[in-house]
Amino acid sequence: MGAGISQQAAPNTAAYAAPVIREDEEGTRTLFLATPMHDQIRQKAPKVLLEVAERGFRILRPNTEEPLFEYPFPQVHSWGSVADKFSFRFYEEKPKTVVLYTFETIFVDHILRAVHAIIDGILKDRKNKSMNTEEFAQLLQRITNSGDRLEQVKTACSFNFFTSSQGNELVSLLQNAFDKVEAAALLHFSLVDQSHFYVVLKSLESVEDRENVLHRVSAEKARRRLSEMKAQKDVSTSQKRNSTGQKSPASPASPASPA
Questions:
Q1: Are 195 and 117 in contact (CB under 8 A)?
Q2: What is the tens place of the pLDDT at every residue in 12-29?
Q3: 35, 82, 172, 241: which could form a disulfide with 104 (CB 3.0–4.6 Å)?
Q4: Which tens digits make up the pLDDT trace of 39-95?
């Protein structure tokens, strides 16, 4: 998330009386004026702009539109609304826990439409990747006849994509709670409609098992994001070396293997 910025005088928010659309090198972004309910955000600004874009949510300071916090979609568990409040649950990497962020706003319906439009666009690109009905029926039969159903599900996830409904069926084939939790967490990353992951969670019998799965998914998302950031940093470092003519540091010689 973004770094803190010192408190400023209350901004003039007249320019945000309606949702504002920005189109630039960062893509299409929609800004909604809101009042943050979470202390961490409220300490930075009493009024904020909740930005909805393909990468996720960002919190901006009105007028300057300077980013205060960022919440990428891969770490957003869910979102919803009640009356004049919009909320989302986000996995925080440092405390390793899911945090609820809530905003008072008159634009709840607009925010929900913007989020759904983005998710629908992402899903549209994924839908044609899911396993077709005939292939899925054959897979179910193979798993049912297998002596190690969990291993069959793991293998299937390595090479295929599924809808959330198919994921529910796969988890339901497993015969104990431990296998179901492991399979459900793994399936999340093979779904073409990850926003409907709750359909897969319905195959689990207890609230504790569902929370366990969500924790596993969040931890894996965080691990993957850190891995991507490291890879991007390595590429950037390599490019800088190349542009300045510097050589990469030599790797230490490996000891000879015994004959």
A1: no
A2: 789 999 999 999 888 899
A3: 35
A4: 999 999 999 999 999 989 999 999 899 999 999 887 888 899 998 999 999 888 777
Q: What is the Cα–Cα distance from 173 to 144, expressed in whole angstroms?
A: 7
Give the span between the Cα atoms of 198 and 165, in whole angstroms. 10
φ/ψ of residue 76, rounded to 5: -90, 120
Could you identify the residue written with the tokens 């159903």? Answer: 149
Distance, first Cα to last Cα, the chain: 52
66: which residues sit within 8 A by CB, 6+ positions away? 5, 60
Strand partners, 81: 86
Question: Which residues lie across from 97 on neighbouring strands?
Answer: 92
Question: What's the CA gap between 113 and 107, in Å, rounded?
Answer: 10
The kind and range of the H/E element at 214 are helix 207-244
Indicate the helix (H) or strand (E) that contains 128: none
Q: With bands split at pLDDT 50, 70 and 90, how would you rate the model's confidence at 159? A: confident
List of residues 6+ apart from 15 with CB closer than 8 A: 62, 63
Cβ density class 184-205: b for 16+ within 10 Å, e for less: bbbbbebbbbbbbbeebbebbe
The token pair that represents 221 in the structure block: 């998302």
